[in-house]
Amino acid sequence: MYSPSAHRDEQAPISMPERRSFLAVVLAAASGLVTAALAIPLMRFTTFPLRDSAETASWSDVGKIDEFNSLKEPLARVIDVKRVEGWRSSVVQNGVYVVPTGSGGLKVLSSVCPHLGCAVRWIDKQDKFICPCHGGTFTSTGVHVSGPPLRAMDELESKIENGILRVRFQYFRQLDAKKELVG
Ligand code: FES
Q1: Any atom of ligand 1 within 6 Å of the Cβ of 84
Q2: Between residues 84 and 76, the one the model is more confident about
Q3: Are both 108 and 36 inside the same structural domain?
Q4: Do both 99 and 35 map to the same domain?
Q5: I want to staple 71 with a disulfide (CB 3.0 to 4.6 A). Which of 56, 100, 107, 128 is the partner?
Q6: 16 with 97, same domain?
Q7: Does the pLDDT of residue 108 top 80, yes or no?
């Protein structure tokens, strides 16, 4: 007598569905590995300019070192900074202060207020830096004196190269007592 289940059993062994699901798992795992293998280099490739800009901010010329040798108080300078965003690069201008340290040395401070990012101004008549936004004040070397900023003005990495004072302009986290690089 004809029995559908008996016929199906002869054509398709009981182990077939299990074998199929096992193969499906193996194929899915292999496909996942291939996707991951392709995605990792792709991620590195596409994010390279971002990582590069964060890790290796460009250097900008501030001026000939001779111009700053007899400096007695902070001097404002506008510098050209090359920014890399994705695959596009552009040049933006930023303000810095060249500051005599008192021992014959110099340091360069960012004009970006560590409170909320306004441009801090040097007021020579009052012998201090004042932020016009919320009244934060700093000494002539950038030490925080009063007002809402939680830390000193941010010193930028600088060096003298072939008689030129150069600076690496970077941004630091605002509203934070600790100086922490953000780009
Ligand atoms: Fe400078 Fe607020 S932004 S004190």
Answers
A1: no
A2: 76
A3: no
A4: no
A5: 100
A6: no
A7: yes
